[in-house]
Specification:
This protein is mainly β. The chain has a domain at 7-101 and 126-152 and 162-193: Alpha-Beta Complex (hypothetical protein yedk fold), CATH 3.90.1680. It has four helices and 13 strands. It has helices at 11-18, 89-94, 172-176, 182-188; strands spanning 5-7, 21-22, 32-35, 40-46, 52-59, 76-78, 96-101, 103-110, 113-120, 126-135, 142-151, 162-164, 197-200. The strands form two sheets. Strands 2, 4, 5, 6, 7, 10, 11 and 12 form an eight-stranded mixed sheet that branches. Strand 8 and strand 9 (113-120) form a beta hairpin.
Length: 221
């Protein structure tokens, strides 16, 4: 699963990496070390004209037919079944996105202690696969997303059996393209085979109210 992640680059770098135009995004002046469910997160998506945009989404997908966005929503979706699940199948076909992240967190039980780990590329930004929707049953539209997950591979499997789907840079255009066939999409969300850096971090990350990244030590400066 994916229940917390972090993002270090500034806005200009994200726009360059993903070749996207700004939607409704204000400047990001500092890293986000503890992005948590229900918070606003950045994602790259295609607008009605097919252009790549970068905008804010609430983390926790609210299906268009959902009655109340305050009810539990979908933080993650299993990539193996998302195409057929009522909550995700429309977005799977038409509204896919990329969620920029420098890495994500996962916890492993060690006796009575749950040790947090930071997992991600050694440098740069990865693109987590997501699905998005716009909920319009309330006074204001709610644009939201879910992060797709797959089986873990390599050393990550020793920490947790699930991890976010990471879309290779060469596959990102096809992932965002609503014309991509289901058979091709299934290949794009296969378990990640690339290298990941895994490091133990401090327990401060356990509380989503903590956002200074102190658990990284000098790496957070």
């Amino acid at each position: 699963m994916c229940g917390r992640f972090f993002l270090r680059p500034d806005l200009d770098e994200i726009l360059r990496i993903f070749d996207a135009a700004v939607d409704d995004v204000e400047a990001i002046t500092s890293p986000r070390w503890n992005v948590a469910p229900t918070q606003q997160v950045l994602a790259v998506f295609r607008d009605e004209l097919g252009a790549r945009r970068l905008g804010w989404f609430r983390w926790g997908l609210v299906p268009s037919w959902w009655k109340d966005p305050k009810l539990p929503v979908f933080l993650n979706a299993r990539s193996e079944t998302a195409a057929s699940k009522p909550a995700f199948r429309s977005a799977w076909k038409r509204r896919r996105c990329l969620v920029p992240a420098s890495g994500f967190y996962e916890w492993q039980r060690e006796g009575t202690h749950k040790q947090p780990f930071a997992i991600g590329p050694s440098e740069g930004v990865m693109a987590m696969a997501g699905l998005w929707e716009t909920w319009t049953r309330g006074p204001e539209p709610v644009r939201s997303l879910t992060v797709l997950t797959s089986d873990s591979t390599g050393a990550m499997a020793d920490v947790h059996d699930r991890m976010p789907v990471v879309v290779d840079p060469a596959d990102q255009a096809r992932w965002l393209d609503p014309r991509t066939a289901d058979e091709a999409l299934a290949e794009l969300v296969r378990p990640w085979q690339g290298a990941l850096t895994i490091r133990a971090v401090g327990d401060g990350v356990n509380d989503a109210r903590h956002s200074d990244g102190a658990w990284f030590g000098e790496a957070a400066s």
